[in-house]
């Protein structure tokens, strides 16, 4: 069962690494005996399904979340390991999909209008007059 990120991108199960450990939190005595905490890891540089452009984009955008090029997500919200596995898959898919979203249009630089310059300078001079009126008259 592959992890589908987008219609065009699906991570094969063979590239995903699972680790299980005991989870803290609710569960009573059950929590001491079952490995319900899930860690899901995926190596971005080692992936065969990514294009060079996608790989560069993921490495750049997920830089703070990667350790040696590997992204790891954990899930221990549920008592069931199966549910935690599903949550971990969703978390990984969301992070990768968000990082692959193309940039929006960049801001086009514009000049201030003549009217806005005039208003800014008028407000500036009014402020200056207000502050000048607060000063003590000089005794020259």
TrEMBL record:
Residues 108-125 have a biased composition (Basic residues). One of its GO terms (molecular function) is peptidyl-tRNA hydrolase activity. Its EC number is 3.1.1.29. Residues 126-140 have a biased composition (Basic and acidic residues). It is an enzyme of class 3 (hydrolase). Keywords: Hydrolase. Residues 100-140 are annotated as: Disordered. It holds the Pfam family RF-1. The keyword Signal does not apply. Signal peptide: none annotated. The keyword Signal does not apply. SUPFAM superfamilies: Release factor (SSF75620). Residues 9-134 form the Prokaryotic-type class I peptide chain release factors domain. Belongs to the prokaryotic/mitochondrial release factor family. PANTHER family: PEPTIDYL-TRNA HYDROLASE ARFB. This is Alternative ribosome rescue aminoacyl-tRNA hydrolase ArfB. It comes from Glutamicibacter bergerei.
